[in-house]
């Protein structure tokens, strides 16, 4: 799972053929879990211009696995990672654990960070299983039980015979967020937000190509923004954000993004929208007019009905939450259509101007014309 290449890996593709309809700005970037029920990625691909997904495991970027598929129309050449790269092993990422780590636990990296953690009884059971072992080394059966629990719940050794789940601060570090990014919210909310989030270094590597294209900054439509993985990544790459529309239903996530925005002294505008289903063509038109268009439409729609951990409602892309993917699709297509038309309309305006020497007065109610006129006003 190295996609078109990851830092330090020799396999690298720097060119691909995109269908013409998907080429060029506004750029887009879509993410979801790699391991889905059969046929899901084919459906996603066919809704997103038949572009092949790029599957990447974040274990090449940080100390935890995270297998994700990405569909985007970004250029591939000259990608660069955020430096310094974070540690790739548990020992380097969670320093205190080394002292207590038994030799028979061979893990070097963590499994995927989940949205919830084990309950205290598992830790207690592990401790008592180890304490009742007669020798220094527990039986094979005990070891197997412990390893299964540790791997499932990403537990690390924090004392004699003691394993503990990762702390939210440790997860933030592994996932590439600033220290205390989600602080001030309940542990379960923090874990939920972090478990759903982008691994910042992984997506920053893919988005890094935008830096040279937009030295003065970009306008972002961020759908399903969560705790702001996209925004944090763009910031860490060094791409200024001129205007960001964040669409996120969870009020805790919204507070996390707003807090981060304030703390990092962003100069741009941040607009919040609560529900992706509230985004209308009229709203898109007004944002496009106001900002002069979007440069990036980014988001990973909910994976609740796709992820392997969910046995009960793993009913695929048409499941209650995962079907929100189709909202991403229509919004992206509407933005590209409106902006494409905008470009055509600007050309038309220029032509008309040169022919008759007048400009349109902008009273036409047609959405396309309103976009073009708004954009034109912004330029003049
Ligand atoms: N990429 C994000 C997380 C995406 S997880 C990050 O880096 O943090 C999917 C997100 O979609 C969750 O945060 C969830 O709260 C949000 N969501 C679910 N239903 C939504 C809806 N109807 N409108 C907007 N956001 C929604």
Automatic annotation (TrEMBL):
It is found in: Nucleus. The keyword S-adenosyl-L-methionine applies. Belongs to the class I-like SAM-binding methyltransferase superfamily. C5-methyltransferase family. Its EC number is 2.1.1.37. PROSITE patterns: SAM_MT_C5, SAM_MT_DRM. The active site is at 303. It holds the Pfam family DNA_methylase. It comes from the Eukaryota. GO terms for biological process: methylation. GO terms for molecular function: DNA (cytosine-5-)-methyltransferase activity; DNA binding. The keyword Lipoprotein does not apply. It comes from Artemisia annua. InterPro entries: C5-Methyltransferase, C5_MeTfrase, SAM-dependent_MTases_sf, SAM_MeTfrase_DRM. This is DNA (cytosine-5-)-methyltransferase. Residues 14-342 form the SAM-dependent MTase DRM-type domain. PANTHER family: DNA (CYTOSINE-5-)-METHYLTRANSFERASE, DNA CYTOSINE-5- -METHYLTRANSFERASE 3-RELATED. One of its GO terms (cellular component) is nucleus.
């Amino acid at each position: 799972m190295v996609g078109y290449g990851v830092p330090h890996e020799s396999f690298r593709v720097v060119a691909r053929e995109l269908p013409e309809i998907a080429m060029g700005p506004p750029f887009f970037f879509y993410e979801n879990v790699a391991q889905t029920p059969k046929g899901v990625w084919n459906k996603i691909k066919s809704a997103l211009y038949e572009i092949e997904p790029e599957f990447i495991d974040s274990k090449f970027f940080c100390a935890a696995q995270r297998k994700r598929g990405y569909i985007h129309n970004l250029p591939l050449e000259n990608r660069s990672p955020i430096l310094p790269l974070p540690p790739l092993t548990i020992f380097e990422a969670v320093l205190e654990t080394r002292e207590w780590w038994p030799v028979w636990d061979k893990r070097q990296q963590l499994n995927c960070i989940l949205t919830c953690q084990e309950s205290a009884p598992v830790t207690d059971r592990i401790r008592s299983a180890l304490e009742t072992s007669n020798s220094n080394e527990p039986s094979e059966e005990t070891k197997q039980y412990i390893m299964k629990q540790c791997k499932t719940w990403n537990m690390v050794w924090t004392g004699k015979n003691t394993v503990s789940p990762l702390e939210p601060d440790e997860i933030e570090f592994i996932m590439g967020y600033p220290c205390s990014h989600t602080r001030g919210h309940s542990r379960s909310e923090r874990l939920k937000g972090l478990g759903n989030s982008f691994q910042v270094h992984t997506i920053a590597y893919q988005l890094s190509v935008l830096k040279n294209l937009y030295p003065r900054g970009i306008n972002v439509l961020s759908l399903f923004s969560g705790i702001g993985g996209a925004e944090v990544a763009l910031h860490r790459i060094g791409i200024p954000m001129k205007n960001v529309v964040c669409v996120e239903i969870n009020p805790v996530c919204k507070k996390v993004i707003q807090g981060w925005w304030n703390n990092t002294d962003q100069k741009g505008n941040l607009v919040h929208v609560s529900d992706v289903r509230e985004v209308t063509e009229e709203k898109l038109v007004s944002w496009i007019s106001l900002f002069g268009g979007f440069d990036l439409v980014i988001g990973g729609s909910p994976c609740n009905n796709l992820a392997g951990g969910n046995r009960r409602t793993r009913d695929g892309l048409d499941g209650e939450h995962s079907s929100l993917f189709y909202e991403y699709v229509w919004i992206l297509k509407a933005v590209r259509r409106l902006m494409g038309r905008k470009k055509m309309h600007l050309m038309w305006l220029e032509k008309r101007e040169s022919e008759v020497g007048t400009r349109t007065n902008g009273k036409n109610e047609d959405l396309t014309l309103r976009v073009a006129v708004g954009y034109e006003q912004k330029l003049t």
